[in-house]
């Protein structure tokens, strides 16, 4: 995949390294040369100094052939402008904008732009850790309405089947990891001692899950 990342702060740098290490064709754009230099000489992608919403800079970065475009700069305005250029002018198939302001993130999400609010996500994550300390939410979706929860199978659930832990529209068992190997279980699959369960849980059902597992 050819992906352009606008902004080489901590998030942009991390995404660039992850994508590059997986063998993707990565181009990082930032107006600060020092930020680009942090990627180091071993970085396999391309580094371009310039403004990420400038048309000429984007063309130089190869946006006309890009399959994905990510904005991670420290400016919400710059991220929105660049993301809309990528989607509406250059028709990049996959565009993601990181925004600090959750209200703006929601507005542009409704307009069809894929947005991630680090402020919103961080607040939801802290809230989960404070109020549901026994449940390890490894990921949230939307604005935190659904969480992916990792759980060591409780002793009382060993020998029971998946369908005993499923609540329609609230709790779903996504996978079981057993002896280092994960699989998608059927409703009749039994839990074994040492299993790690991953569940998709509606935020409003967290307390119900805690009651079910005896947390």
Low-confidence parts lasting 5 or more residues at pLDDT below 50? none
What is the CATH superfamily of the largest domain? NAD(P)-binding Rossmann-like Domain
Cα Rg: 21 Å
Helix content: 25-40%
How far is the N terminus from the C terminus? Answer: 43 Å
> Could you say what the CATH architecture of the largest domain is?
3-Layer(aba) Sandwich
Strand line-up across the major sheet: 3-2-1-4-5-6
Q: How many independent structural domains?
A: 2
Seen as an oligomer or otherwise, the chain set is: single chain
Which structural class do the helices and strands define?
alpha/beta
Query: Mean of the pLDDT scores?
Result: 86
Q: How many β-strands, per DSSP?
A: 11
Residue fraction in strands: 25-35%
Number of helices: 7
What is the name of the CATH topology of the largest domain?
Rossmann fold
- Biggest sheet record: 6 strands, parallel
Describe the 3D structure.
The protein has 215 residues and is an alpha/beta fold. It folds into two domains: 2-119, NAD(P)-binding Rossmann-like Domain (Rossmann fold, 3-Layer(aba) Sandwich); 132-213, Alpha-Beta Plaits. The chain is 32% helix and 28% strand. The protein is built from seven helices and eleven strands. The protein has helices at residues 10-21, 33-37, 55-61, 76-89, 102-110, 118-131, 206-213; strands spanning 2-6, 25-30, 46-49, 68-71, 94-99, 114-117, 136-141, 146-152, 171-178, 181-183, 196-202. Strand 7 and strand 8 form a beta hairpin. The longest helix has 14 residues, at 76-89. The chain starts with a strand and ends with a helix. The model has no long low-confidence stretch (mean pLDDT 86).
């Amino acid at each position: 995949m050819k992906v352009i990342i606008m902004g080489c702060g901590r998030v942009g740098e991390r995404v660039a390294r992850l994508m590059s290490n997986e063998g993707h064709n990565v181009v990082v754009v930032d107006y600060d040369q020092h930020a680009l230099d942090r990627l180091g000489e071993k970085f396999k992608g391309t580094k371009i100094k310039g403004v990420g919403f400038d048309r000429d800079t984007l063309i130089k970065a190869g946006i006309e052939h890009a399959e994905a475009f990510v904005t991670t700069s420290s400016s919400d305005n710059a991220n929105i402008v660049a993301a809309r250029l990528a989607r509406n002018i250059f028709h990049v198939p996959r565009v993601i904008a990181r925004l600090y302001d959750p209200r703006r993130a929601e507005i542009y999400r409704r307009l069809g732009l894929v947005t991630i609010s680090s402020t919103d996500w961080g607040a939801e994550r802290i809230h989960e850790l404070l109020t549901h300390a026994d449940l390890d939410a490894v990921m949230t979706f939307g604005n935190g309405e659904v969480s992916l929860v990792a759980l060591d199978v409780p002793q009382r659930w060993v020998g029971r089947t998946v369908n005993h832990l499923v609540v329609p529209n609230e709790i779903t068992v996504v996978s079981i990891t057993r002896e280092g190997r994960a699989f998608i279980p059927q409703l009749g699959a039994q839990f074994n001692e040492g299993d790690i369960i991953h569940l998709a849980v509606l935020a409003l059902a967290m307390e119900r899950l805690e009651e079910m597992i005896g947390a």
